[in-house]
């Protein structure tokens, strides 16, 4: 167990190092430069020079990378070139809004997908199954920004019940105000990921249902409910856990499209604007954290496997 | 079946909860609270270091200007400086501050704050955009190069604080546009004199504007969400009528329109799409405001490439004939722009309404190309992707060019890549926008040494006249000179002028007193009011 853990850590470190090098190279070979953003600003050439010098951007690239790496080891993620503030501070400012949006959407989509997918698999070919098939096809093929705008047209304009943008009306907004702002973006997010999960759940449950031990359980006269909860779901959960764990990093990197469509003050928009503005320290920190999150989620999935499946525990 | 009934009931209950929440929001709009949309969140509220339009607009809510410009004539007007006079030496300006100015913490705003701000801008570690404006001040350049202290301390020979309310600024030589440069705000010396200039860009007290003297004071800044400001009772032009403003960052333009129609926003500034104007104007709750701006769109011509046909003036003149600009304005911009034939804009006092280029035709263009010995060639045209108007201009241009034997390759580039291509000269033609100064001085873009002269335009006569233009004060004479300069520049066909677009704002019909300035949205914001809404205080 501990060896597995150490092994994983070691591998993760190598992956992260690789990611940082590649990100650094790609980032600096992309055209542009953080002070170039507005060609109409009458920046004095000496001011630009001094700006670069103060931020150590006038040094050769390898030196810049080593500088960045050594600061990283001291826990310093650097300062945003655009905002002139520490990157973690900027990220933490936006993370709560992101989680407020992505976590409910994730839980809702997963919960709905497990219940609906199981239901559809149990009544394969039935009305619900066919309806779900159609709905998920629509959910997967409709572009999410389009769905977002349609939702907005319907429920913010046609029937002006819900706000079309933002997270709240003011600083002292009530919980119901924030909930009202959440409905449309969460619906848009759920529509997309639910369709993805539900097909997975349905397929996995069907696969388990066709196994001999289910037939035997039925033959022994257990109730359907007992069979589903005792035998089907535990066996179907391994692949579902994998899929769910792999979507965990997305909870933190945000839901860019939803954030843009509904003007949600989340982390995704910040990441994209920072990338477009060539905010090097932000790009590095974000890519590295995202890579670390992916590695961690994989690791979490492995741990969950051990927890769920006694056979694996035995082998390990 | 029963279970689904429970589910439906739950949904209904939930909706009631939400509706309740919405109604609360509605009640709030009855107060004197203004909700303004912004396409992007400001990056800093520090006006001396702001590099993006969003930050500069937001900063205008929180900071007062030393001097203002009239929105119609662009003539310099008193603001914090109640008066300004040029001394007999034609070099020294004497500025007198209004009496009784206060920072929001109660400290008096004095000539020392102004002097401190000027020192800060001239400091060697200052990396903002204002220094080029101050290099005309006697001793500013020396001060910048010496960099004696990391703080904004020391002396500039041309700046002298005479008393609490009076400051004298002496220039190296007469520079007519100088007053129009002093539209930036002062910063509080008592809060910042112990901060190193190199650290000021990200300094928290500037980010959060703890002390201000503008029309509004910061109540809260929620990054990427909104800026919430409250009226400053001590504002020197009078306490603003609107008690609070929420400046909300809504990147999605469609959402902005929907929120305006739903009554949750009061103002969509500057960038209302031309195709939305008619629909919005039809709504009785909404009024459309338009104003001219100091910006224009043009097609840059890269003449730096050796052996390029674009080095030949006749080829450039032919290119300038291809587009029917009237048609662009009527059909593409639906009339919300003015055709432009030269670098002077309608707002400039030197603008000449009679001046126009000869309307060319395709055969005439073809003739010029043949004369130049370039019957057929290829050109690379770039623009920033996502700008629909420019994309259409590019397509029209390609179509027209094909008829005279020019094969135009269109490349839509992401913004940073576009800028990099411009900087590296990796283009033949580029469609872009540009802003002009309030003063008609064209040196920045057209002097051979101008910092904004990207195309490498150089004409000795133009240089000489530009230098003369800033060295006389008489408006008539200056007007004459700039018209002459315009003729010379246009004859060289260095770029293709297209049009100057109007700013289009959509506002709630309740909003009174709103009249945007060509350079600032929140011009005279203290005079705005919301009719028919109770005073919130």
Q: Can you tell me about this structure?
A:
The complex is a heterodimer of chains A (316) and B (537). By secondary structure, chain A is an all-alpha fold. Chain A has a domain at 87-276: MetI-like fold, CATH 1.10.3720.10. Chain A is 76% helix and 0% strand. Chain A is built from 13 helices and no strands. Chain A has helices at residues 2-29, 45-54, 61-73, 87-122, 127-141, 144-158, 175-209, 212-219, 224-253, 256-261, 267-276, 280-308, 310-315. In chain A, helix 4 packs across helix 7 (175-209), helix 5 (127-141) packs across helix 7 and helix 6 crosses helix 7 (175-209). The longest helix of chain A has 36 residues, at 87-122. Chain B has 18 helices and 21 strands. Chain B has a six-stranded mixed sheet with strand order 14-18-13-17-15-16. A four-stranded mixed sheet of chain B has the order 1-10-9-8, covered by helices on one side. In chain B, helix 11 (313-320) packs antiparallel against helix 13 (362-372) and helix 17 (460-470) packs antiparallel against helix 18. Chain B starts with a helix and ends in a 7-residue tail after the last strand. At the A-B interface, helix 2, helix 4, helix 6, helix 7 and helix 11 of A face helix 1, helix 4, strand 8, strand 10 and helix 9 of B.
């Amino acid at each position: 167990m501990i060896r597995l853990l150490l092994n994983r850590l070691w591998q993760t470190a190598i992956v992260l190092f690789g990611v940082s090098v590649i990100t650094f190279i790609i980032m600096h070979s992309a055209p542009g430069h953080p002070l170039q953003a507005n060609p109409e600003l009458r920046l004095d050439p000496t001011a630009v020079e001094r700006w670069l010098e103060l931020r150590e951007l006038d040094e050769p690239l390898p030196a810049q990378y080593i500088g960045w790496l050594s600061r990283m080891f001291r826990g310093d993620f650097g300062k945003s070139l655009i905002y002139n503030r520490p990157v973690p501070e900027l990220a933490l400012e936006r993370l709560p809004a992101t989680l407020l949006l992505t976590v409910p959407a994730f839980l809702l989509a997963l919960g709905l997908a497990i219940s609906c997918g199981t239901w559809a698999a149990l009544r394969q070919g039935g009305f619900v199954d066919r309806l779900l098939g159609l709905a998920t096809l629509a959910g997967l093929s409709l572009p999410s920004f389009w769905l977002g705008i349609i939702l907005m047209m319907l429920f913010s304009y046609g029937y002006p019940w819900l706000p079309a943008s933002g997270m709240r009306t003011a600083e002292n907004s009530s919980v119901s105000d924030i909930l009202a702002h959440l409905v449309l973006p969460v619906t848009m997010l759920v529509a997309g990921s639910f369709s993805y999960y539900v097909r997975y759940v349905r397929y996995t449950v069907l696969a388990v249902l066709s196994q001999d031990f289910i037939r035997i359980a039925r033959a022994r006269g257990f109730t359907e409910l007992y069979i589903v909860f005792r035998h089907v779901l535990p066996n179907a959960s391994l692949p579902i856990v994998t899929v769910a764990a792999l979507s965990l990093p997305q909870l933190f990197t945000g839901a860019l499209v939803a954030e843009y469509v509904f003007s949600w003050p989340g982390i995704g928009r910040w990441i994209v604007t920072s990338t477009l503005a060539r905010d090097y320290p932000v790009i590095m920190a974000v890519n590295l954290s995202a890579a670390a999150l992916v590695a961690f989620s994989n690791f979490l999935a492995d741990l969950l496997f051990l927890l769920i499946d006694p056979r694996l525990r035995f082998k390990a | 079946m029963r279970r689904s009934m429970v589910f439906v009931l739950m949904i209904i209950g939930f909706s009631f909860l939400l509706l309740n929440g919405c109604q609360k929001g509605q009640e709030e709009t009855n107060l004197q609270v203004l909700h303004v949309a912004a396409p992007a969140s400001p990056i800093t509220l520090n006006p001396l270091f702001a590099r993006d339009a969003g930050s500069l607009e937001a900063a205008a809510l929180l900071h007062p200007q030393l001097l203002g410009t009239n929105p119609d004539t662009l003539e310099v007007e008193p603001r914090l400086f109640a008066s300004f006079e040029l001394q007999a030496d034609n070099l020294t300006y004497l500025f007198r501050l209004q009496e009784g100015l206060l920072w929001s913490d109660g400290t008096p705003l004095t000539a020392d704050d102004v002097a401190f701000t000027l020192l800060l801008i001239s400091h060697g570690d200052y990396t903002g955009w204002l220094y080029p404006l101050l290099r005309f001040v006697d001793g500013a350049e020396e001060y910048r190069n010496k960099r004696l202290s990391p703080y904004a301390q020391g002396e500039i020979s041309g700046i002298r604080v005479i008393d609490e309310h009076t400051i004298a600024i002496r220039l190296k030589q007469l520079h007519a546009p100088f007053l129009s440069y002093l539209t930036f705000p002062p910063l509080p010396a008592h809060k910042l004199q112990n901060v190193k200039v190199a650290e000021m860009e990200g300094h928290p007290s500037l980010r959060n504007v703890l002390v201000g003297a503008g029309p509004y004071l910061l109540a809260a800044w929620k990054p990427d969400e909104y800026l919430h400001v409250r009226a400053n009772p001590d504002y020197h032009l009078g306490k603003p009528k609107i008690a609070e403003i929420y400046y909300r960052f809504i990147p999605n333009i469609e959402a902005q329109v929907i929120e305006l129609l739903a009554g949750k926003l009061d103002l969509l500034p500057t960038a209302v799409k031309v195709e939305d104007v008619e629909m919005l104007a039809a709504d009785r709750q909404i009024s459309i405001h338009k104003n001219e701006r100091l910006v224009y769109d043009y097609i840059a011509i890269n003449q730096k490439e050796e052996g390029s046909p674009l080095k030949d003036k006749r080829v450039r003149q032919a290119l300038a004939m291809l587009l029917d600009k009237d048609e662009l304005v009527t059909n593409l911009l639906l009339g919300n722009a003015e055709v432009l034939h030269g670098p002077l804009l309608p707002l400039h006092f030197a603008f000449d309404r009679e001046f126009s280029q000869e309307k060319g035709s395709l055969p005439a263009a073809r003739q010029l190309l043949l004369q130049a010995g370039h019957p057929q060639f290829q050109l690379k045209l770039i623009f920033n992707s996502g700008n629909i108007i420019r994309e259409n201009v590019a397509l029209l241009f390609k179509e027209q060019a094909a008829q005279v034997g020019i094969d135009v390759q269109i490349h839509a580039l992401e913004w940073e890549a576009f800028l990099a291509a411009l900087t590296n000269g990796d283009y033949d033609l580029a469609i872009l926008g540009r802003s002009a100064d309030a003063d008609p001085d064209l040196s920045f873009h057209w002097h051979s040494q101008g910092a904004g002269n990207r195309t490498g335009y150089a004409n000795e006569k133009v240089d000489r006249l530009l230098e003369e233009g800033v060295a006389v004060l008489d408006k008539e004479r200056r007007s004459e000179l700039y018209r002459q300069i315009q003729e010379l520049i246009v004859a060289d066909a260095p770029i293709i002028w297209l049009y100057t677009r109007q700013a289009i704002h959509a506002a709630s019909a309740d909003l009174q007193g709103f009249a945007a300035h060509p350079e600032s949205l929140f011009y005279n914001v203290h005079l705005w009011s919301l009719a028919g809404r109770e005073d919130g205080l």
